[in-house]
Amino acid sequence: MTASRRSSGRLRRRSAPSIPHTKPWLTTADARAVSAVVRSGRLSPSPAVEQFESAVARTLGVSGAAAVSSGTAALYLALRALGVGPRDEVLLPSYVCTALLHAIHSTGATARLVDADPESFNLDPDDCRRRLRRRTRAMIVPHLFGLPADLHELLALGPPVIEDCAQTMGVTYRGRPVGSFGAATICSFYATKLVAAGEGGMVASSSPRLLSKIRDGRAYDEQHRFAPSFNFKLSGLHAALGLSQLRRLPMILARRRRIARVYDRALAGLPWQQPVSFPDREQAYYRYVVRTQGHVDRLITRLQAAGVTARRPVFRPIHRYLGLNGFHATDRLWREALSLPIYPELTDAELRRIVSAIGRVIGNASKGSGRG
User: Fold this and answer.
1) Where does the chain hold its CATH 3.90.1150.10 domain(s)?
2) 28-247 architecture in CATH?
3) Residues of the chain with CATH 3.40.640.10
């Protein structure tokens, strides 16, 4: 073996592993909670499910909740409970994952896409107003990346609002818990979410009638009458893990906010726009999303080479799947937005590595902008 090959091998062995974009924070308390359900023998139905439902309802500031198998299932059932079906239209952002589109299509309704607000990344209330139709039956309002949408403006438009709190559990808008404003609220507990149960979802509401419809729709067996239903139940294993995670939600949010403050200080002199803040709403920092000068794919590649995994916060806007035009703010966000690693188990040493890598990757752009 040549000296150069030996040197290369030593460098590979000594190099630190790549920092992932996100990972769940799993503890021994989580393992004990799941183990307790296994030892009980009551996997489904399980008392853990009802306990999880009650805890989520308290967190969201509503009177009740119904656990289901995924966030997509939660949205589908919520739409059905609101009477959405064929010949109806549902407003939703284009700048969001396709799970929302799948849920709408499953009801037979038509998705009417809305452009993004370029500052908050959330639904643009003015564009929502322009796209309202007589057939608009509901409006899905995701609170993207941990920042609540402008609920005051959106609720004033009239159609029933389904809040999507998959990324904002535990934060407030104008002093009230996000999730307590809409006709229904959905959550996801997928492995990368704020509360990570591996899989699972929830529909929350203060309407007993709506929640009754959700519970009827999530299980097809032992019903007094036949109605279209499916097996959308949540297991006790997922519920126990979710409940254990939910108990740590204040710690989860505090750690994410601390990491965000480090990013804020480190990026202050660099040519990237940091996440915006609003005085009337809290921020969960589910994602730390910056606005770059474009060339996001190139930045992702360069950061990966430096040992940092970054991502587009939305893989592809929905209007691009459907071949539609006219979503100018969404297109610009897709070209410029970059999501940096942020999760509770991100160590201070890893955070320093990320900041150092960012400085190296965009150093030339920083010099060109005249800022140090």
Assistant:
1) 249-368
2) 3-Layer(aba) Sandwich (3.40)
3) 28-247
**CB distance 363 to 317 below 8 Å:** no
C-alpha closest to that of 78 among 189, 215, 196, 265: 215
The CATH T-level fold of domain 249-368 is Aspartate Aminotransferase, domain 1 (3.90.1150)
Spatial CA neighbour of 100 closest among 322, 280, 276: 322
pLDDT tens, per residue, the chain with 372 residues: 555 455 444 444 456 789 999 999 999 999 999 999 999 999 888 999 999 999 999 999 999 999 999 999 999 999 999 999 999 999 999 999 999 999 999 999 999 999 999 999 999 999 999 999 999 999 999 999 999 999 999 999 999 999 999 999 999 999 999 999 999 999 999 999 999 999 999 999 999 999 999 999 998 766 666 666 788 999 999 999 999 999 999 999 999 999 999 999 999 988 899 999 999 999 999 999 999 988 899 999 999 999 999 999 999 999 999 999 999 999 999 999 999 999 999 999 999 999 999 999 986 444 444 443
- Whether the model clears a pTM of 0.85, i.e. scores above it, the answer is yes
β-pairing, 201-205 with 184-188? antiparallel
